[in-house]
Amino acid sequence: MCSDAAAVVLGGPARPGGPSAGLPWGAPVTQPAADGSDLALAQLTSGSTGSPKVVLHSHRSLGAKTVQMVAAHGLGPGDATLVQSPMSHISGVLNGILVPQAAGMNQVLVDRWDPEAAVRLVRDEAVSFMVGPPTVFLSLMDEAGADREALSTLRLVSCGGTGVTPEFVADASSRLGAVVKRSYGCTEVPTVTTAAVGDPSDAAATTDGRALGDTELRVVDPATRVDVAVGDIGELWVRGPELFAGYAELSQTEDSMENGWFRTGDLGTLHPQGWLTVVGRIKDVIIRGGENISPAEVERVLESHPSVQQAVVVGVPDDRLGERVAAFLVADADLDPQACLGWFTSQGMAKFKSPELVERLESLPVLSLGKPDRSALRTRAAELFG
User: Fold this and answer.
1) Which residues contact 283 (CB under 8 A, 6 or more apart)?
2) Is the distance from CB of 342 to CB of 195 less than 8 angstroms?
């Protein structure tokens, strides 16, 4: 359990009605010793597949994103954030250190995620802003239960990951009484898209946001490297001031860049107004009998079932079809997986996208940041298929 001693509060002057100040602020640094192009951070990528890469960021790239996010989230000295991401992750660095310090707000850092301790810290430290995957907020809401006052100080929640569905946003918004929005980013280009203060709430719930400032997006056919039509699915390319300086391994940088554009490896669509919807990773696409299946699309349909809280869909190698489709659900105890499968086929989805295996779990295996561990689920699916 995360005890009080495991939570560190950093911040400035005490807010009226809020908690006591944490560590005192020092004098502002007005003459930095580093140049903007100097390297500021070397960080490993995360994920459940593939070997990690060492990502290099400059002071300029981190500074540009920090200023952009403070403005987009509307943060200031009256806010406080609870950070569950470790400092070994770009979200921990950005949302746990840089953004709070630039906004002059308190930050509460915990050594590991514990929902019971988190509910107490949200209340005691008047936490108003949090960033994380859906699993973090589902456990937070479950722990708080019907006690809406326990989390009443939260006003803004930014969720990332392919499991952030409109249904989750609507449910979390209602239960938390806060603005809940989707965001998208990666270690190489943190928080590429999000909804800013004043943006339409429906766009914040149904898309992964839009690029802000000088950040640019393209959606490209991975094979031809030609831009696809608006609304069509392709690989997301990004360039802008927050773009990383490269990988420590030069060949990896060369493989990921195209004339100043970073090829993210993520699949998405751009709407006419510039809103982005990420539908999955190129490497996560399931190819069943020659047909491409986006796990995120299948997950969104499954999570629209009233008894399903979370869904993760993975592919399993198959000698005849190439891959088979397996779905793992966190759902109400009385959910019949086979009945859910029948419901799925009634939603107008193409038959080849239908999972061949549906299993209900009490909880999903997760990585250290709360993202579903798809590698573990692929192993589990392979065992079940036999």
Assistant:
1) 49, 50, 265
2) no
Both tokens of residue 297? 């699309």
Strand partners, 308: 331
- Output b/e per residue, 318-354; b: 16+ Cβ within 10 A: eeebebbbbbbbbbeeebebeebbebbeeeeeeeebb
> What integer is the mean pLDDT of 35-63?
85
Q: How many CB atoms lie within 10 A of CB 221?
A: 13
Residue 320 DSSP code: T
CATH topology of domain 285-385: GMP Synthetase; Chain A, domain 3 (3.30.300)
DSSP 117-131: HHHHHHHHTT--EEE
Whole-angstrom distance, CA of residue 167 vs CA of residue 133: 14
Summarised one tens digit per residue, pLDDT across range 188-208 is 999 999 999 989 989 989 999
For 367-386, give the DSSP string. Answer: -TTS-B-HHHHHHHHHHHH-
Domain 4-27+37-211 has CATH 3.40.50.980: yes
Q: Which residue has the tokens 């069509």?
A: 232
pTM check: above 0.85: no
**Per-residue DSSP letters for 59-99?**
HHHHHHHHHHHHHHHT--TT-EEEE-S-TTSHHHHIIIIIH
61/2 Cα distance (integer angstroms): 33
Q: Tokens 């500074």 map to which residue?
A: 63
Residue 29: what residue type? V
Q: Which of 137, 28, 15 has its CA nearest to residue 75? A: 15
pLDDT (0 to 100) of residue 12: 52
Domain locations in the chain? 4-27+37-211, 285-385
At residue 210, φ and ψ (nearest 5 deg) are -135, 160
Produce one character per residue of 361-384: b if its CB has 16 or more CB atoms within 10 Å, e if not. Answer: eeebbbbebbbbbbebbbebbeee
Question: Is the dihedral angle over the CA atoms 308, 312, 313, 314 positive or is it negative?
Answer: negative
Measuring CA to CA, which residue among 339, 327, 319 is closest to residue 381?
Answer: 327
